[in-house]
Design brief:
CATH topology of the largest domain: Serine Threonine Protein Phosphatase 5, Tetratricopeptide repeat
Oligomer: single chain
Number of domains: 2
Order of helices and strands: HHHHHHHHHHHHHEEHEEH
Shape: elongated
Pfam families: ANTH
Subcellular location: Cell membrane; Cytoplasmic vesicle, Clathrin-coated vesicle; Golgi apparatus; Membrane, Clathrin-coated pit
Protein name: Phosphatidylinositol-binding clathrin assembly protein
Strand content: under 5%
Structural class: mainly alpha
Keywords: Acetylation, Cell membrane, Coated pit, Coiled coil, Cytoplasmic vesicle, Endocytosis, Golgi apparatus, Isopeptide bond, Membrane, Nucleus, Phosphoprotein, Ubl conjugation
Number of strands: 4
Number of helices: 15
Family: Belongs to the PICALM/SNAP91 family.
Radius of gyration: 48 Å
Length: about 525
C-alpha cells in the first residue's frame, strides 16, 4: 500500500468543505501512505497547540477517532502524531491527556487485512501502552520527565529524600513501558515504525538522563537515610542497574538502524564496590554483623560512582544540544526567507498588472497576446490603432497620463529607467474620435419651432363597421368624400418575434384592417338610413 488512498482524499475534501483545519491536518498526517507523518502537518498541529483559541479536547478527540480505524497504518500514524505533539507541542495537550480517564484503548488491536498487519499490530499495542504510561506519569507528578530541567541545579538533583523515593519508581515504570517496545533491526522495515522508533529513542535518552540524575541524588543521600529509606533506595539502585543494561541493548538496535553514533550516549556503570558498600550499610542498620567500610573508603567509593554516573549524564546532553542547534538553524533560515522582500519597483509593477487584469475582467479586450508581455493587450488585425492618451502636467513637473495604467508606468519608469513601457492607448468609454467639449458663453431662450413628428408610413385609423353603417368606400360623410381603406400588409416576409409586443428590427409592421363585404341589397338599405340620419 503506497500513496494516499481515495478515502484519504475524500476525507480531506470533506474537512476542507466544513472548514475544520485541525481535522484536515490530522487526516493528512494519518493517511494510508506507508511513511511517517509529514513534517508540515506536524508543525501545523504543534502551532495549533500554542494557539489559545484552539480547542485541545477537539484536537485530542480527532486523534482518538483516527486510532479507531481498522488500518494499522492509520492507527500507527495517529499514535506517532500524538507522541510528537506530546514531545514538542504545548503542555496543555499532555495536561488534557493526563486528565482523561481512558486514553488509547488498543490492547486488542489486530489488523488482519494487510500483509504486515499481524507484526505491526503487536508494536501498536506496545506503543499505545507506553503513551498511556507517559500520560499517567504526568498525572502523578505533574511534570514531563523528558522536559524537566537537568544539571546540578536540576529538578531531580535538588529533590528531597521522600519525594525522590516516590518519584524514581514512576520513572522506572515509564522506562519499562518504553523498553518493552522490543523492536529488532529486521522488524524496522517501513517508514511508519521507523518514525515511532525514532521518537522512542529520543524519549529514552531524556528519560534515562532524568533517571540517572535522580539516582545520583539518591546515592549522595543514602548514608544519611533511615533504615526504611535505605531499603527502598537500595532496591531502586538495583533496578537502575538492570534498566541500564536493557537500555544499552535498545541503543544497539538504534545504532544498527542508522542513528548517528554521536547521538548515542556512552553508558558507564558505577563500580561494583559501590553496591557492596550500600548493602553493608543497610545490613549494619538492620543489626546484622557485617564488615562495614570505614568513612574514607566509603567516601571514595561514593565519589567514584557519582563521577562515573555524572559522565554518563553529560553524554546524554549531546543529543539535546544537537536538536537545539538544528532548531536554531531552521529558525534562522525562516527569518532569512522573510527578509527577502520585493523592491518598490517590483511592487509598482505588480500594481500595474493587478489593475490591468481587473480592467480586463470588467472590459475584456478583443485580443490577448499569450506569449508576449502580460502588460500588453493585443489588438485585432482589422482594428486601427488608437491615438495615444493625452498627457497632463502634474504639479511636481512630471507628465501623467489621464489613465491609471500610463500614470503607473511613468512612475515606474522614473524609478527604473532601464525598463521600457509600451502602453497602447485604450478606447475611452465616452465621446467619439473627434469629440470636443463645447461650452456656450451665453444662453438664448426662444420658442422652438414646432415640427410635426415624422411618420414612418401613412397610417389610417382602423375602420370598424357597425351594423347599419355604410362602408367608407360606398358613402360620404358631411359632403367630404371618404377614402376607401386600403388593406395594409407586411412589406417583407419576416418571422414573428417571441414577444409579440417587441419591435422587429429591419421590418415595418403594418396593421391590416379587416374589411367586411356586404350584400348589395343590404348596402342600399344601409346607405339610405345613413344619409337620412346625417341630414
Amino acid at each position: 500500500m503506497s500513496g494516499q488512498s481515495i478515502t484519504d482524499r475524500i476525507a480531506a475534501a470533506q474537512h476542507s468543505m466544513t472548514g475544520s483545519a485541525i481535522s484536515k491536518a490530522v487526516c493528512k498526517a494519518t493517511t494510508h501512505e506507508v511513511s511517517g507523518p509529514k513534517k508540515k502537518h506536524l508543525d501545523y498541529l504543534i502551532h495549533c497547540t500554542n494557539e489559545m483559541n484552539v480547542s485541545i479536547p477537539q484536537l485530542a478527540d480527532t486523534l482518538f477517532e483516527r486510532t479507531a480505524n481498522s488500518s494499522w497504518v492509520v492507527v500507527f500514524k495517529a499514535l506517532i502524531t500524538s507522541h510528537h505533539l506530546m514531545m514538542y507541542g504545548n503542555e496543555r495537550l499532555i495536561q488534557y491527556l493526563a486528565s482523561r480517564n481512558t486514553l488509547f484503548n488498543l490492547n486488542n488491536f489486530l489488523d488482519k487485512g494487510a500483509l504486515q498487519g499481524y507484526d505491526m499490530s503487536t508494536f501498536i499495542r506496545r506503543y499505545s501502552r507506553y503513551l498511556n504510561e507517559k500520560a499517567m506519569s504526568y498525572r502523578l507528578v505533574a511534570v514531563d520527565f523528558t522536559k524537566m530541567k537537568r544539571g546540578i541545579d536540576g529538578v531531580m538533583r535538588s529533590m528531597n529524600t521522600e519525594k525522590l523515593i516516590k518519584t524514581l519508581p514512576i520513572i522506572q515504570n515509564q522506562l519499562d513501558a518504553l523498553l518493552d517496545f522490543q523492536a529488532n533491526p529486521n522488524e524496522l522495515t517501513n517508514g511508519v515504525i521507523n518514525s515511532a522508533f525514532m521518537l522512542l529513542f529520543k524519549d529514552s535518552i531524556r528519560l534515562f538522563a532524568a533517571y540517572n540524575e535522580g539516582v545520583i541524588n539518591l546515592l549522595e543521600k543514602y548514608f544519611d537515610m533511615k533504615k526504611t529509606q535505605c531499603k527502598d533506595a537500595l532496591d531502586i539502585y538495583k533496578k537502575f542497574l538492570y534498566r541500564m543494561t536493557k537500555l544499552s541493548e535498545f541503543l544497539k538496535v538504534a545504532e544498527q538502524v542508522g542513528i548517528d553514533q554521536g547521538d548515542i550516549p556512552d553508558l558507564s556503570q558505577a563500580p561494583s564496590s559501590l553496591l557492596e558498600a550500600l548493602e553493608q550499610h543497610l545490613a549494619s542498620l538492620e543489626g546484622k554483623k557485617t564488615k562495614e567500610l570505614n568513612a574514607d573508603t566509603r567516601a571514595s567509593t561514593l565519589s567514584s560512582a557519582v563521577s562515573t554516573l555524572s559522565t554518563t549524564g553529560m553524554s546524554f546532553s549531546r543529543m539535546d544540544e544537537k536538536e537545539k542547534q538544528q532548531a536554531l538553524e531552521e529558525e534562522q533560515a525562516r527569518l532569512q526567507a522573510l527578509k527577502v522582500t520585493p523592491s518598490s519597483a517590483d511592487l509598482l509593477i505588480k500594481c500595474v498588472f493587478f489593475f490591468r487584469l481587473h480592467a480586463r475582467v470588467c472590459f475584456p479586450p478583443s485580443g490577448f497576446d499569450a506569449l508576449g508581455d502580460l502588460l500588453k493587450p493585443t489588438m485585432p488585425a482589422h482594428a486601427a490603432p488608437l491615438p495615444p492618451p493625452q498627457m497632463a502636467i502634474h504639479h511636481g513637473g512630471k507628465l501623467l497620463a489621464n489613465d491609471l495604467d500610463s500614470s503607473l508606468a511613468n512612475l515606474v519608469g522614473s524609478e527604473c529607467p532601464d525598463m521600457q513601457w509600451n502602453q497602447q492607448g485604450e478606447k475611452k468609454l465616452t465621446g467619439g474620435h473627434n469629440w470636443q467639449n463645447k461650452t456656450m458663453s451665453t444662453t438664448q431662450w426662444g420658442p422652438a419651432p414646432m415640427a410635426p413628428a415624422p411618420l414612418a408610413f401613412p397610417m389610417t385609423p382602423p375602420q370598424v363597421p357597425v351594423y347599419g353603417m355604410v362602408p367608407p368606400q360606398m358613402g360620404q360623410m358631411g359632403g367630404v368624400p371618404v377614402m376607401a381603406a386600403q388593406p395594409m400588409m407586411y412589406n417583407q416576409p419576416v418571422l414573428r418575434p417571441t414577444n409579440p409586443f417587441a419591435p422587429m428590427p429591419g421590418a415595418q409592421v403594418s396593421y391590416p384592417v379587416l374589411v367586411h363585404s356586404y350584400a348589395q341589397n343590404d348596402t342600399f338599405a344601409t346607405e339610405k338610413v345613413f344619409n337620412s340620419d346625417v341630414s
